Amino acid sequence: MTHLMQTYARLPVTFVRGEGAWLWDAEGKRYLDALAGVAVTSLGHAHPAVTQAIREQAGALLHTSNWYGIDWQERLGDALCAVAGMDSAFFSNSGAEANEAAIKLARLYGHKRAAKNPTIVVMEGSFHGRTLATLSASGNRRIQAGFEPLVTGFNRVPYNDLEAVRHVGEHNPDVVAVLVEPVLGEGGVVVPDRGYLKGLRAQCDARGWLLMLDEIQTGMCRTGRWFACEHEGIRPDVMTVAKALGNGVPIGACLARGDAAALFQPGNHGSTYGGNPLACRTATAVIEAMREQRLDARAATLGARMLAGFRERLEGAKGVRQVRGLGLMLGIELDRPCREILTAALARGVLVNVTADSVVRLLPPLILTDEEADRIVATVSDVVREFLGPP
Ligand SMILES: *Cc1c(COP(=O)(O)O)cnc(C)c1O
Description:
It is built from twelve helices and 15 strands.
């Protein structure tokens, strides 16, 4: 009997070692990782620069406290703000905590502007985390059910619907911010229409709202740019980052720009572990490696190759609704629930994910070779066709 709480329906495999895009189980069987720990190990497993950063820092200093100066936190703040075009950073240990910081920032901003009940516009189908505030912000009843009462102060509208946001703006004077994923991740790899983020930026500017982008899954080169907002040439007021930032070492960040950058004052927010030397040095090495290996451009090229590959191989397959994606965030939407695909792909030595019940999701590491990318496309296409049965 396991002593672990049953929070996950785990697949029957345990990995003991990884290198690049590959994982090995205890029996020595090899798997191609097209999930990267859900967009976390973007540099692949056991990346030498990341391993070296961890080793050196572990031997020097793991933790002091945020009551003292932390050199690696300063350096990471500089490096991350530089690549993201932001002004200031708060470091957390996870994505949900980064979003908690963003939500608190929006409320502080609202109270400064004398909003009675500072309210954040959030989206249907969104995912922002599992803490109480972030699950309340998420647009998925399944992750909220059983945990009521929910945190209030969110006004939900359909995703990819600028008119709905305009409507809320006209009727709710308490709105102070919009929180949105540039591409819905857990919600099924939903890429909004061109102009959506730009339209949100314009509405936020016109009404003095903060535009808060949850780039926890889309950021760090995943979509073919450093951050997905670059596809539309806009910058948010607040941006949250996590997942690939530490390549597996837990770290998240809430970044802010302009007025929002100086809102938090001593005593407003904090975290014991957040921004510790180990996590910050690792993340600094991750940014450096991504820059050196030009993984933003590589993700764009590979993503286009894989998308074209899937479209070709799944052409005419009955039951495939749509093959879509942005960079290396790829989704194959089927016309039926398809969790069995996880086990079928696993048996063929490829790790994928199914989200929103019927979307096969791929988030491979950005360091894939062309051959590895083609192998994933071929195997997953075969598994999907076999799952769907004869046409
Ligand atoms: C994964 C994810 C989160 C939550 O991050 P955790 O580190 O699991 O708390 C929040 N937002 C988005 C868009 C995510 O993909």
